[in-house]
Amino acid sequence: MDDMPGHAAAPQLRAATYARLGETYDAAEPVPTQLASADRHARRRGWRVVARFQDDGYSAFKEIRRDGVARLIEAIEGDEIDVVIIGDVDRLTRNLPDWGRFETAAVEHRVLLSAYAGGDLDLSAPEGWYYGGRRPTGA
Q1: 3-class secondary structure for the chain?
Q2: CATH number of the domain that 75 lies in?
Q3: What's the CA gap between 51 and 60, in Å, rounded?
Q4: Cα–Cα–Cα angle for 51, 54, 59, rounded to 5 degrees
């Protein structure tokens, strides 16, 4: 596409997908559909999916350990991913402790949140602060 000398190709982002379906009736897409949609989103964006996480049958409101979101946060903290793909922000979490851990990790490790049913959100940028993100340390 860009054959001009001096332009290096942008590095391919490492993406993780996350899907969740609540324990009670939930009008959201089933987990396999969410993961397939996230994979298509990654392909369209030129991102390489390196990890998939899911919590099937766990409410995002309750303050219980959801292993999928916990492993996702650990992958962010381990600098294993550059972007998290979800269907919509409400699929990630609805309780403050999980959101706080995710937010802290995403900001500190500069991980982008990308919703295939919405858009991209950098929680460390001013527009991300509005959606619940925070200013990164030293910025």
Answers
A1: CCCCCCCCCCCCCEEEEEEEECCCCCCCCCHHHHHHHHHHHHHHHCCEEEEEEEEECCCCCCCCCCHHHHHHHHHHHCCCCCEEEECCHHHHCCCHHHHHHHHHHHHHCCCEEEECCCCEECCCCHHHHHCCCCCCCCC
A2: 3.40.50.1390
A3: 21
A4: 150
Task: Supply the mean pLDDT for the chain.
Answer: 79
Q: HEC states along 8-33?
A: CCCCCCEEEEEEEECCCCCCCCCHHH
pTM: 0.78
Contact of 16 with 84, CB cutoff 8 Å: yes
The answer to whether residue 70 is domain-embedded is yes
Q: The domain containing residue 67 runs over which residues?
A: 14-130
CA dist 23 and 58 (Å) reads 5
Contact between residue 95 and residue 87 where contact means Cβ atoms under 8 Å apart: no
Residue 60 covered by a domain: yes
Task: Please write the tens of the pLDDT for every residue from 50-84.
Answer: 999 998 765 544 555 678 889 999 999 999 999 99
Polymer length in residues for the chain = 139
